[in-house]
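Table S2 (text version). Query chain:
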Amino acid sequence: MTFETRLRDNAASTEKLLAELLTGAVGEDEIARPANLLDAMRHGVLNGGKRLRPFLVIETARLLGGNEAAAQRVGAALECLHCYSLVHDDLPAMDDDDLRRGQPTVHRKFDEATAILAGDSLLTLSFDIIASPETSLTGDQKTALVLALARAAGIGGMAGGQALDLAAEKQAPDEQGIVTLQAMKTGALLRFACEAGAIIAGNDASHRETLRRFGEKIGLAFQLADDLLDLTSDAATMGKATGKDAARGKGTLVALRGEDWARAKLQEQVRDAANLLAPYGEKAEILVEAARFIAERKS
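Corresponding structure-token output:
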């Protein structure tokens, strides 16, 4: 099966599972699911997309022989958390965007208060999915996943990175500051996506560390590619506004070191990522292809 086919199939299965999780059916210990809030959550999540983060969870678990059904649920949980971050990032107080994946952002289609609550609900739902009895993992595995995801998403990870990103509009960080910001804002969730596969598979610490490092490499590649696209692509292709980093004077590695350096650095990250997975042989080829896809993507 080709990488493109696997990515598409995983995206379809993730979309189906997310739709099942985001219904009006009231779960155990829930009181009610307000229709307008649920509609906003569904708008923020069920809008297509490559579902790259769930793909990485599923494929790293598959590489190590993990429970695929459990990996799909953990991938869906991660996607809920990722989409919460997008809903909040788009708010006027943050990145102030009107489009996401070619559709009106949640606060534009609904309102700001509903968008905040939709994001809050998606964030908490992500941990609900992992902890749920329907996720067939041991208690220790669930605890490890919840802890790793909380660390990746919170003050020392994505949320902290967003805070640094906002501060960068007022005072541009130096190169190390940019690397730290991007590792937190973008790289932390991609790192978790890869590390999660090893946790799901119940493998030893060496596998977990290898996949964690692989996730760090592709996380930097993802951000470099994103910064290049923000500079060179257009809103029609990207499904969101472009050129905003330059307009706001935000420091990026592309702005600091130039396009040629950034493209060379991208290829270096892909090579490093592939080398990390070399001991797994052909079984890891789909993940190596994912690294190449991240570096070469057009949207």
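Notes on Table S2: Residues 205-232 form the longest helix (28 residues). The chain has a mean pLDDT of 93.
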